[in-house]
Amino acid sequence: MSYLAFEKSKLINLEQSLFKEILRTNRAGSYSSSSIVGCNTRKYHGLLVCPIPEFEMTRHVLVSSIDATVVQHEKEFNLGIRKYHGSHYEPKGHKYIRELDFDIIPRKVYRVGGVVLAVEEVLVAKEEQVLVKYTLLEAHSETTLKLKPFLANRSVHELTRQNLQANTKYEKIQNGISIQMYPNLPKLSIQLSKENEFVPIPDWFRGIEYFKEERRGYDYKEDLYVPGYFEVEIKKGESVIISASTNEQKTGGFKAKFNKEVERRIPRDGMYNNLLNSASQFFVDKGNVTTMVAGYHWYKKRLRDTLISAPLLTQALEDDELFEKVLASSAKEIKASITDKSLTDIKEADTPLWFFWTLQQCWGKSCIKDLWNKYKDLLVSIINAYKKDRYDNVTMLENGLIYSSDDKHPLTWMNGMCDGKPVTPRNGMCVEVNALWYNALCMTVQLAKTSKDNKLASELEPLAEQVKESFIATFWNDDEQYLYDVVNGDSKDSSVRPNQVFTTAFAYSPLSNEQKKCVLDVAKHQLVTPKGLRTLSPQNPAYMGVTDGFANIREFGIHQGAVWPWLASFYAEGYLKLHKQGGISHIKLLVDNFEEEMVNHCIGTLSEYYDGNPPHMGKGAVSMAWNVAGVLKILKLIEKYS
């Protein structure tokens, strides 16, 4: 049996199957996603979802789904499924599914009477094209397929309704049709791999519902347009492929292209390979620029997420060239934040400092042999930007520490917003920001000394020493034996949060080994869960153990108790640095808990965050880059310390 496989009983039970999702991407910003039975439960779901240049690269759901109907002896069996009002599902194609596996790509097998039909989908790499392959495995009489496309042609953040502005005219092209429903959206080409008959029966299917949007407090009903259906005969052992693309295709090449795409996929035969498969989905190549998506479905690029994720993901993928490309685009953005603020949206107090940590993850690797020559000027510029208060609402105090404050925008990774205000403002001196600051100064001093740049080393070394002394004096809670989270004048926040854990993992830390042990012990007993670290101790009155409901409620919970897997990698690194081989069993037990997540929420990847209370249900975005990176990092650490 496949590592990832679902039997009939779990597929036809919608209370289970509708909460499990599939995601595929094309490494150019597009994706294809739905529930495992093909019923779209979010407005973000769709068979072909592409970024549109005319709309600032906002993704648009072009094709929502394609219904396949099996016809035998003039009887029709529709394999599609959609939700309507009152928990009414029509058609009910899920009841025909017999199995679903993910050996390489998702493969569903349907049985209708004497017909057994396999359905497989691939998204073509770096092209706006999806291919759906139908293979007739068994049939005792003549069989016909009817393929009916459901079109949305709208932003992923919106829903569409039947309207008079939609252009429903189509043109015939090779083995298919092309249609452009709205200006500035691409012309959509829908074609089959063999000759067929297109039957135009234009219609709007009204009142389709997405229950996950309803639960999140958003609009959840829409109408989808169907131009008609394609009718094609299929014989036993034959495969028919339907393509949806923003460009007209040569239909004779569909089968070769499909096979090529399958060959380049990573087999999903274990947790590690599933995470590798997921890791490759976050990178986006556009022209000569390579960036990263923070997560799916609604996140775009976020620089902090990129800096934390990129070195770990590319190391696991063994792709130094990919790392260099992402690093170059990140460096360009950071440089712009210093030289011309209008060219960047960096507002956070910590993001530029993560660049130093990103480089440290690759020391000794061929991808940055010329580390100092390549990035010296940028590293020095970042440090000077903090020293000279170049960033808004961020300043270096006389004691050398970094102070940040903004009542309108969150300045750290705890960036939840409600009613236009940060949920966790953290105004003052933040523990992880200053840990990053110390690490950046020490790293630069060390590199300057190595390259015989004694002037720079002598300039920064006294500041690094001052920051170390000030850090301990400011953040060490001598009574409780751990670090304050935020200090603002006489106000000292003693909330037990994971931000203090970073100091135990960084290459340069102001803490002694004994202090690190105290910090890790507190985290181990109050923050560590089977899915990562809580954002707040359950002993705190403000703790929220379950994050659910409408947006404002969720925003309150995501940093007041919700669990984030990426934080576990810093805990694991600090723990293993301290305990070495003796700590492996504890960390291995922690990472083994992620095995079950390969079949929960989104198949083969990790959710954005998890409830703080057991059973730690996955919530938020279905696939998050820094969480995948974090677990891959822990697996590498276990290998290293073993």
Give the structure's gist in a few sentences:
With 642 residues, this protein is of the alpha+beta class. The mean pLDDT is 94.
Highlighted features:
9-stranded antiparallel sheet, Beta-galactosidase, Chain A, domain 5, 642 residues, elongated, alpha+beta, Glycosyltransferase, 2 domains
Kindly describe this structure.
The strands form 11 sheets. Strands 1-9-10-11-12-19-16-15-14 form a 9-stranded antiparallel β-sheet. Strands 2, 3, 4, 5, 6, 13, 17 and 18 form an 8-stranded antiparallel β-sheet that branches. The mean pLDDT is 94. The chain is elongated. Strand 23 and strand 24 form a beta hairpin. The chain folds into 2 domains: 243 residues, Beta-galactosidase, Chain A, domain 5, CATH 2.70.98; 371 residues, Glycosyltransferase (Alpha/alpha barrel). The longest helix is centred in the last third of the chain and has 22 residues. By secondary structure, the chain is of the alpha+beta class.
Total of DSSP H or I helical runs spanning 4+ residues: 17
Shape: elongated
Number of domains: 2
Here the CATH topology of the largest domain equals Glycosyltransferase
Q: Which CATH C-level class of the largest domain is it?
A: Mainly Alpha
Question: What level of helicity do the residues show?
Answer: 25-40%
Strand order of the largest sheet: 1-9-10-11-12-19-16-15-14
The low-confidence parts are none
Derived structural class: alpha+beta
Q: Measure the end-to-end span.
A: 31 Å
Tell me the CATH architecture of the largest domain: Alpha/alpha barrel
Query: Nearest-angstrom radius of gyration?
Result: 26 Å
What is the arithmetic mean of pLDDT?
A: 94
Portion of residues in beta strands equals 25-35%
The major β-sheet equals:
9 strands, antiparallel
Annotation, overall tally of beta strands: 37
